[in-house]
């Protein structure tokens, strides 16, 4: 994996990029970490699995995470989308298919990117994903006691999430990885994401019965499940996906 730093709107975004053996036109897997203390570091083995299967692979630290600059309290769902888009546009040729993989909060980011890139998105991999009310999209995360937290803690606020509409419209390959125990994402959110993906996508559900919400760490530490996840995501990509 080759490290890089991408300058974007005053932030220095740390990323890594690796080339697979599938040639210049192969899909690029963009793997996005979750919230809190998450970073791209735990995702490196997953990137390696994608390159071993012929894909190119890319990951970044959002601002306020890992080796990137910035304060986490200033980040927002919108800024996450914009930072991911900026890095993709800078490092992935515009004619290359995308495989978008998101953990937890990046379920929302993947949905936003899917709506933006449209038919260029060949496959999705969502791991214990979150989706949020549209009202939360532009609000800085703050310190846990501000408007963002108020919005997302409002019961049922996620039900009209624009992310669900984006996932419902998606027609490519889609895999939902579901841990056996998740104390962060309510089961009804997971089921809503599943229902959205099942509407039009070539959908598969991958159960990880011994994993908890931190699916990125689980896949890092369990090569068999990591390989199964990548193979499931890439199934059928040469058949119109």
From TrEMBL:
Q: Which GO terms describe its molecular function?
A: hydrolase activity
UniProt keyword Hydrolase present: yes
Please provide the record's keywords in A-Z order.
Answer: Hydrolase
Decide whether keyword Glycoprotein is in the record: no
* Chain ranges of the Serine aminopeptidase S33 domain: 27-135
Which superkingdom? Answer: Bacteria
Source organism phylogeny? Bacteria, Bacillati, Actinomycetota, Actinomycetes, Kitasatosporales
Please give the Pfam families that the UniProt record associates with this protein: Hydrolase_4
Q: What is this protein called?
A: Alpha/beta hydrolase
